[in-house]
Amino acid sequence: MHFGHWFWVINQQPHRKVYWVLLSATIFLLTSTAFAQDSLIRYEYSEMVMGTMFKLTFYAESNDKADRASKLAFGKVHQLNRVFSDFDQESEASRLAQSAGQKVKVGEDLWNLVKLSKQISRHSRGAFDISIGPLTKLWRRAIRQHQFPDSNKIRQAVELVNYRWIKLYPGKQQIKLKKPGMKLDFGGIAKGYAIDQAFRVLSNEGIQYVLIDGGGDLYINKNPPIGGSWKIKDHGGRPIEVVPPVAIASSGDSYKRLKWNGKRYSHIVDPVKGIGLQNSEIFTIMAMNATIADALATTIGLVSKTHRKKLLKKYQATLLQN
């Protein structure tokens, strides 16, 4: 109603009065915005989920609004953990693997992320592959037991890894894993997806000045409302300049690795060779959303430098120099 009235005034009155109407409206808007920003309070919440610490930092008008928004956001992340976890035998992803060879009706989140993952697999020429589950299970055990995996077991696991064997049936939102023994591992993308979905929940609650930290992977929507910016540092402690909205994700062997016969092998496994990445470099990706940043951070060390540039361009992402 108000916009319609202003529009009517603009079209019916002399230009001089139009100017004053617009000017007064602008002053009112700026004053109201400044007042609203002054009334915002900073809130911080954290919970352990998806095997890591998730932290929400945002500005809201009241305790009630902040508490409600944080509960809804964390509720979504916990729900996604029940969808994607390959540690939980009752998760939706685990039940899909247990039904390999059959078409299975899946929920929206699993459908969306499998669909996106297959797209990234194609563009990365298989360097990113969520069907890598048999290999990651093998390497988790190897890292835990400090023992290089048996070569025959590596070969057997590699034979079960191929994103092309994940079949999608859009009409009925069904997925089929073609080979028995296939297992999905969303460890290279689910955390980023959860961060994006948590922000979506906060945004629906009217909260826009947000920083979400999911175990070191970040999504920033807007800088704090009254001056300044979020203080972001890379793994080496150096400040990173960001222009929100932006997501940042890093991947490397800082925490999980196997040292064997003078070599070190990362928990990031090459889905084609079946071997842990031997490059100890930490890759940090900046992208428009956390899902893509997470997936590319996992993938970028497994592709050639030429292909790396193409992949970054495709997803409008940036590799931050160490």
Note down, in words, how this protein is organized.
The structure is a single chain. The protein has 322 residues and is α+β, with helices and mostly antiparallel strands. The protein is built from ten helices and twelve strands. A seven-stranded antiparallel sheet has the order 1-2-6-7-8-11-12, covered by helices on one side. A three-stranded antiparallel sheet has the order 3-5-4, with helices on one face. The chain has a two-stranded antiparallel ribbon with strand order 9-10. Strand 9 and strand 10 form a beta hairpin. It starts with a helix and ends with a strand. 35% of the residues are buried.
Task: Give helix and strand order, one letter per element, not per position.
Answer: HHEEHHEHHHEEHEEEEEEHHE
What portion of residues belong to β-strands? 15-25%
Terminal CA distance: 54 Å
Lateral strand order in the biggest sheet: 1-2-6-7-8-11-12
Give the class from helix and strand content and strand pairing: alpha+beta
Number of strands: 12
Give me the Rg, rounded.
Answer: 24 Å
What kind of sheet is the major sheet?
A: 7 strands, antiparallel
